[in-house]
Amino acid sequence: MNRYLALSRTTHAGLDMAAPAFCALLWLGGFPPWQTILLSLLTAFAAYTAVYALNDIVGLKYDREKFAGSEINPGYSMDASAQRHPLAQSVLSVRSGMIWAGAWFAAAVIGSYLLNPVIVLVLLGSTALEVFYCRLLKVTYLRTLLSGLVKTSGPIAAILVVDPNPALGRLLLMVAWLFFWEIGGQNIPSDWNDTVEDRRVDAKTIPLLFGQEHAGRIIVAALALSVIVSAFLPLISPARFGVPYVVASVLLGVLLLLRPGLRLYRLKQGALAARLFESASYYPLANFALISTFLAAQQFLGV
Question: For the whole prediction, is pTM greater than 0.85?
């Protein structure tokens, strides 16, 4: 089973699930019915499990090229299993990987349809974007933009669960916050950490094409934009959070995003790129914990 969990990067996928959970609570301004919560959790887990597995299936050829003749990059503490990239290491067959991904994808489609049939289209769209993202590794650094769009698809689906007709302006504000977080906190730092392997296959990534100085500037700019946008997120919610929530939310961004991002920019050490990636991975979970605390206080304590 560990091989399958490694294929789907289950630890990382679990952290990613906090983003749609946070967005749903913020958009609704409260907790949805427990039946909706349970079905949404099962559907989100199935979707993230399938898409992460798909990433390794589609990118198998490139992964094998990257790791040919050398040890696999140890990755991050949240995803440092000895069986990371099990297909590339030949510890899991491609057939088994495809069956695993297909089964979870089917579950995700069923769950999405039950929650809101429109979400099926979001799932299919994000899956197509993920395939394009993997295929463009040797083509263009602009694939980074696709990564930002893929990461926003889960939260968009979550919003569609609690609001079948979301206002476009409010939705775009949420998308911008997540898009810049993914670019600056996840995608570019990940490519920075993998420069040795990516150079081996002539990958087109921002750190390789533009160098560490420019990559660092893009990271800091994207993270700063994400933190700034986060200060305005309460405007899209019917709940009244007040100044304390905004201050706490911005502080989370400063601590988990900007501080490690600025340190990476100043010192330009590969290990710091991995640390930024990990810190940014916990950012949605921290926001989920924050909003859950505020909503629980409002609901149960009347504050």
Answer: yes
